[in-house]
Amino acid sequence: MTPAEARTTRTAVVIGGGIGGLASGVALARHGWDVTVVERATSLDPVGAGIVVAPNAVRSLDSLGVGDATRHLAALQGELGIRRPDGRWLLRGRADGTASLFGDRTLMLHRAQLVGLLADALPAGSLRLATSADVVDPGTTSRPARVRTPDGDLDADLVVAADGIGSATRTRWMPSAPAPVSGGSTAWRFVAPPVPGVVGSEIWGRGIIAGVMPLADGRVYAYVSVAAGVGVPRDLDELRALLADWHDPIPALLASVDDATALRHELRHLPAPPASLTTGRVALVGDAAHAMLPNLGQGGCQALEDGVVLGVRVRPDDDIAAALQRWSAERRPRVGQVMRMSARVAVPTLWTSRAATSARDAGMRAVGRWTEALGGRALRPVMAWRPPTG
Q1: Rounded to an integer, what distance in angstroms lies between the CA atom of residue 12 and that of residue 21?
Q2: Cα–Cα distance between 339 and 35 in angstroms, integer?
Q3: Is 184 left (phi over 0), alpha (psi -120 to 50) or beta?
Q4: Beta strands of 228-307 (E only): which ranges?
Q5: What whole-number distance in Å separates Cα of residue 180 and Cα of residue 135?
Q6: Quick one: pLDDT band at residue 168, thresholds 50, 70, 90?
Q7: Whether pLDDT at 73 is above 90
Q8: Which of these, 195, 209, 297, 369, could form a disulfide with 52 (CB 3.0-4.6 Å)?
């Protein structure tokens, strides 16, 4: 088979229609693969959640051909930082500082917007909804992989497993990989109607973290995480009571949200990525490979990176298994670093003692005037990343 013939006949099956799966599908299609993306849900309409698109992820979207459209939706603007429950600032800066520090602005989107842009960038007919899929043979250098669906088996030159933190692919074919563990807290996420006075910020209490981020259409993406040591509320009414004396507009946001649209999840993560992100002709991306705590806002961003790098590094005329090993060797150290950073940042958010949180807050106030410099130095390896070009 000639390289030209290989480019027109090589097939890739992507399991999962989340951010990592869609990004992988778009990237592979742009590099000559015949792509099928299978998703077990009947629609791609995520509810109740926003997503921070950091500069490294914005550049990933450029590689996928949707960066400009994304920038037009919503860049974070104005003040942002970390506050106390009484509203006093601990750290304070401006959103446009990320452009000078990391080469691009940080965007704040409703997750459905990002998913929609990625889905629209797929080739027509390549997305199959309401279709479950399982890898029944990961393949070898000389044998294609096989994916089982209700409509029959699919042979594939490449399989991308974007099947989430509970990945059946990882569990079956990488049995020695670390299993998910608890992050020590439970989180609520929701999109609330417009509320006056919202400033982008996180609010750090004793074992409780809340975040508010305005969206371009005036609505507000908000989240609250409650450490197990506090006593996790059973429902939104208990959560509202727990935060009733927090500064405005936190009580108003909680009061305005429709209980049916709020998402509630125990935060879990993988303690480390698998020893390899690939087996045979199968690649793990996104949460299946490196589910991380949300404290750096990098979960979806790293999934976008996975897909972009996969498209560049694994071409249709390559030795697929060997190319995947090289892709894994490139991606695994980076995602491992971001996982560790996210876990470290999460630790002080779980503290519940008055002495520990007072010391934490005093430390943040002491470095507040140097936040931009300190944050830039610490986060530059993550945020300043640029996609490979070939």
Answers
A1: 11
A2: 29
A3: left
A4: 263-269, 278-279, 282-284
A5: 20
A6: very high
A7: no
A8: 297
Question: Once rounded to an integer, what is the mean pLDDT over residues 109-126?
Answer: 94
Structure tokens at 158: 């490449």
Give the three-class secondary structure for 57: helix
Q: Rounded CA gap, 170 and 240, in Å?
A: 38
Homologous superfamily in CATH for domain 3-180+269-383: FAD/NAD(P)-binding domain (3.50.50.60)
- pLDDT of 3: 44
* Alpha carbons 115 and 111: distance in angstroms, whole number: 6
Say if CB 102 and CB 2 are below 8 A apart: no
Three-state DSSP state, 15:
strand
List the structure tokens of 304: 């976008």
Q: What is the pTM of this model?
A: 0.94
Half-sphere exposure of residue 116: CA atoms within 13 angstroms, side-chain side: 11
182-220, pLDDT tens digit by residue? 999 999 999 999 888 788 899 999 999 999 998 888 889
Exposed, middle or buried, 267 (CB in 10 Å: 0-12/13-18/19+)?
A: middle
pLDDT at 98 over 90: no
C-alpha 80: how far from chain center: 21
Both tokens assigned to 266: 């125990």
SS3 for 117-164 is: HHHHCCCCCCEECCCCCEEEECCCCCCCEEEEECCEEEEECEEEECCC
CA dist 28 and 302 (Å) reads: 17
Strand, helix or coil at 12? strand
Closest CA to 16 of 325, 267, 380, 289: 289
